[in-house]
Design goal:
The protein is mostly helical. The protein contains three helices and two strands, in the order H-E-E-H-H.
Length: about 90
């Protein structure tokens, strides 16, 4: 059985180590490592920047880890429908 939590933590920590910053020429999405719906904060140590594809993957992992958390399932569902209020089109 896959260890979704392990994969989630590895992806978050490896991308956090890249020290990415938002720039006009590179599109990143901010992600709460501990989701706000699970008590996570807006503190910088709880935030990481992902590409749209990485962000989609971590939300899929979160749904596998927490299948009964409706807010996480809804966020993933919205991403899978490519619905966004962003001015950028997500590309996976």
């Amino acid at each position: 059985m896959p260890n979704y939590l392990k994969h989630y933590e590895q992806l978050c920590s490896s991308r956090k180590l890249l020290h990415r910053t938002k720039k006009d020429d590179v599109y990143y999405e901010e992600h709460h490592i501990i989701p706000k719906s699970l008590g996570g904060s807006d503190d910088s140590d709880n935030l990481v920047l992902f590409t749209a594809r990485e962000h989609f993957i971590v939300h899929k992992l979160l749904c596998e880890i927490y299948p009964n958390e409706t807010k996480l399932v809804y966020a993933y569902w919205m991403m899978s429908r490519n619905v966004s209020n962003s001015k950028y089109k997500r590309e996976y």
